[in-house]
Amino acid sequence: MGCCASSFSKDSVPQNIPHLDNHKNNILNLPSSSNGADYTAAAADFPPFLEFSLADLKAATNNFSPDHIVSESGEKAPNVVYKGRLHNQNRRSIAVKRFTKLAWPDPKQFADEALGVGKLRHKRLANLIGYCCDGDERLLVAEYMPNDTLAKHLFHWENQTIEWAMRLRVALNIAEALDYCHREGHPLYHDLNAYRVLFDENGDPRLSCFGLMKNSRDGKSYSTNLAYTPPEYLRNGRVTPESVIFSFGTVLLDLLSGKHIPPGHALDMIRGKNILILMDSHLEGNFLTDEATVVLDLASHCLQYEPRERPKTKDLVITLSPLQNKPDVPSNVMLGIPKQEEAPPTLQHPLSPMGDACSRMDLTAIHQILLMAHYRDDEGTNELSFQEWTQQMRDMLEARKRGDLAFRDKDFKTAMECYSQFIEVGTMVSPTVYARRSLCHLMCDQPDAALRDAMQAQCVYPEWSTAFYMQAVALSKLNMDKDAADMLNEASALEEKRRGKGSSS
């Protein structure tokens, strides 16, 4: 059942949103950009937009554990963002924004807004990859950015401040994100500030997609101090495309000064030509005054009181592009952070003896468990007619029998040859034979072949935990530790599911 079924009628649900269960073949059609160069990756490289079930997101966030909270904001429309990890999408890390029902009482309106934002896909965005409406729950799901916010790196840094070239890169990247959104029909961005700028696994700055969607149906979208909000918002409470430009000007001030300075105070400094007083002292003069002057002038134009006097998004990009002076230096190097490799996920379920043996890479124990299991998990994988009991069939079963004897006696090379004879005939499929041959390959130091056999076992029996466990061992042998940990988790989850079915029957 889709996660919206309990919340609104079939007629009110936005149609054609892929559900998580069939996500592999449901990449959302991306909008055609007016500038094809915006896309550095093929459409298929972007994550699809999905409708998640509440159970998916509870599992991903450990039932919305306080330990998973990464931010909380909004007094008028409170929301909390959690870090999570999807259990059945290759353990992808996600950010889950959880609203109160009060903010979005109408689930259709929430789903429509989410779907609109979900059509956007760009390398400068932390893209929205899904949503969930279930009862009182209203949730957005986005790509997770592991390297903190611009606010953290600018205002609360511990090791080093952001160097000037990186600040220029941040300004351009966010300008490009805003320009893309404007051209694709989403010119409004709510409460743009240094907390909305995130750094991905490569240290590249990206604009959070959450700001593309209102915090509530009534659009009360500015949660920051009123001293930083656009003057027209104070007059009428509405966000316009020009309001976004004003907010971008406040971000430029942050980048220049390393402090969160109210625009009115900063403009007084600009008018007094006190550019050096405004500049971040932690830069220790390591910037070009000409470049800083260009950024300061741009900020001044963005902060004009009259909205019509502010620049367009394309003007932001045109002004900032020529200032990029270290295009070949990776962002993580400029930020002074290691390129992040995600740590292997912790196990979510207790390990069975098979799981424990695989996690310890104990091939002898795995051999003993496969021997004891015999062929009980092959039941139902073959339905043979009377006509198929030919001499060829008898020969094939004899080859398997010889393989089993050799496997028992730890003559793995002979076992491998006999199992190959059985497999090559092709009349009968056996996940157990693939698993046994996989172990034979491991015993003969052939992890690539072992992985292929374990994957074949999974193809024959998609929910067989042993197939996943054998893949985990092969992946470990190939030094693919994170993938191996993912497979262990997948296998233990399948075992848990199977035990649950057994106890309920």
From TrEMBL:
<dbReference type="GO" id="GO:0005524">
    <property type="term" value="F:ATP binding"/>
</dbReference>
<dbReference type="InterPro" id="IPR011009">
    <property type="entry name" value="Kinase-like_dom_sf"/>
</dbReference>
<dbReference type="Pfam" id="PF25575">
    <property type="entry name" value="TPR_BSK1_C"/>
</dbReference>
<keyword id="KW-0519">Myristate</keyword>
<dbReference type="InterPro" id="IPR045845">
    <property type="entry name" value="BSK"/>
</dbReference>
<keyword id="KW-0067">ATP-binding</keyword>
<feature type="domain" description="Protein kinase">
    <location>
        <begin position="67"/>
        <end position="324"/>
    </location>
</feature>
<feature type="region of interest" description="Disordered">
    <location>
        <begin position="1"/>
        <end position="20"/>
    </location>
</feature>
<keyword id="KW-0418">Kinase</keyword>
<comment type="similarity">
    <text>Belongs to the protein kinase superfamily. Ser/Thr protein kinase family.</text>
</comment>
<dbReference type="InterPro" id="IPR011990">
    <property type="entry name" value="TPR-like_helical_dom_sf"/>
</dbReference>
<dbReference type="InterPro" id="IPR058209">
    <property type="entry name" value="TPR_BSK1_C"/>
</dbReference>
<dbReference type="InterPro" id="IPR001245">
    <property type="entry name" value="Ser-Thr/Tyr_kinase_cat_dom"/>
</dbReference>
<keyword id="KW-1003">Cell membrane</keyword>
<dbReference type="GO" id="GO:0009742">
    <property type="term" value="P:brassinosteroid mediated signaling pathway"/>
</dbReference>
<dbReference type="GO" id="GO:0005886">
    <property type="term" value="C:plasma membrane"/>
</dbReference>
<keyword id="KW-0547">Nucleotide-binding</keyword>
<keyword id="KW-1070">Brassinosteroid signaling pathway</keyword>
<keyword id="KW-0472">Membrane</keyword>
<feature type="compositionally biased region" description="Polar residues">
    <location>
        <begin position="1"/>
        <end position="15"/>
    </location>
</feature>
<keyword id="KW-0449">Lipoprotein</keyword>
<dbReference type="InterPro" id="IPR000719">
    <property type="entry name" value="Prot_kinase_dom"/>
</dbReference>
<keyword id="KW-0723">Serine/threonine-protein kinase</keyword>
<protein>
    <recommendedName>
        <fullName>non-specific serine/threonine protein kinase</fullName>
        <ecNumber>2.7.11.1</ecNumber>
    </recommendedName>
</protein>
<keyword id="KW-0808">Transferase</keyword>
<dbReference type="Pfam" id="PF07714">
    <property type="entry name" value="PK_Tyr_Ser-Thr"/>
</dbReference>
<dbReference type="GO" id="GO:0004674">
    <property type="term" value="F:protein serine/threonine kinase activity"/>
</dbReference>
